[in-house]
Amino acid sequence: MEKISILLRRCQDEAVVKVFPISAVTKGQLGKEPVDVASVKIAGAAALSEDGKSVMDIKLYEKMMKEAAKQGLPVFAHCEEKALAPDGVINAGAKAEELGLPGIPDAVEDIIAARDIFLAGETGARLHLCHCSTKASVAMVLLAKRLGYKVTAEACPHHFVLCDEDIPCDDGNYKMNPPLRSKEDMVAIREGVKQGIIDCISTDHAPHSEDEKSNGFRNSPFGIVGLETAFALSYTTLCHEGGMKLSELIRRMSTNPAKIIGYNGGSITPGKPADLTVCSLDKWTIDRNAFVSKGHNSPFHGHEVYGRVLRTFVNGKQVYQNPDLDMMF
């Protein structure tokens, strides 16, 4: 609780964007001792999550979901049955076999997603599935919604733009968790986002240095820079090429995420905070060397895309301007 309070105080003084802390489900993320949900809510937590792992003690997780429902906090779930692929670094399939790498099957995600969905149905908790990557996850989220469960879900651009067939070689820039899945999974995620089964588009932004990511799949860390390219990849794939309305993309990237965490924002409406992004829909080429982020690890270097962020405003104050803006107009 104290860490949340300290973080929020620092953000008031130092942050140029709004920060919504998420509390761990268990103390130290060790999966053994539950946090005091009422206390972390009072401290300012927007949700509960074990972040990059799942709570494997199902009775403990059931108890925490009941408490989260009682306190009105959503539970964000990273769904991974690690025991099925403890050494996996890439999607299980032909590409893993070609490169001689240990694979991560879809079941790693699907088993925990199913478990968490049914626990949410039983407890009344608001469950949010993070970075869905498999066709079964899309199907289960659709089932959950039809059953009336309080379940929402998100997907990342890399999971609906790329698949494991796009991995050219043993390149650590393509290593992420969940991994790039099969083409069938990629298409299912893309359609799930377009149809609104998947409520949100997130980034799973995980920057690393070039040195860290230059050691192939086995020895590079998981993670991808997501913030720099999220809008461009989403607009290009879903709208420019996929026929989805821009208003629906805004719903996935802004309106729906705000609703899920209970933030009074996410739309241009009188009375809402003036948190705005100004974009161009022109074509440009992704250059990882021009990223503002300290991390430049991206498999999208050199990709031609449409949609570029020009300015960002928080509470009506400009906090970012594209360095190329003057040359673009």
Please characterize this protein's 3D structure.
This protein is of the alpha/beta class and 329 residues long. It has a domain at 79-269: TIM Barrel, CATH 3.20.20.140. It is built from 12 helices and 11 strands. β6 (127-129), α6 and β7 (151-155) form a beta-alpha-beta unit. The radius of gyration is 20 Å and the shape is globular.
Blueprint (SSEs and pairs):
Blueprint: H1 2-14, E1 22-23, H2 37-43, E2 47-49, H3 58-71, E3 75-77, E4 90-91, H4 94-99, E5 103-104, H5 107-123, E6 127-129, H6 135-146, E7 151-155, H7 157-161, H8 183-195, E8 200-201, H9 216-219, H10 230-240, H11 246-261, E9 276-285, E10 304-314, E11 317-321, H12 325-328
Parallel strand pairs: 1-2, 2-3, 3-6, 4-5, 6-7, 7-8
Antiparallel strand pairs: 9-10, 10-11
Helix pairs in contact: 5-6
Report the CATH topology name of the domain at 79-269. Answer: TIM Barrel
Strand order of the largest sheet: 1-2-3-6-7-8
- Separation, N- and C-terminal Cα atoms: 48 Å
- Structural class label: alpha/beta
| Biggest sheet architecture | 6 strands, parallel
Low-pLDDT parts are none
Cα shape: globular
| CATH H-level superfamily of the domain at 79-269 | Metal-dependent hydrolases
Kindly list the characteristics that best describe this protein.
TIM Barrel, 3-stranded antiparallel β-sheet, 329 residues, single chain, alpha/beta, globular, 12 helices
Q: How would you briefly describe this protein structure?
A:
The protein is an alpha/beta fold.
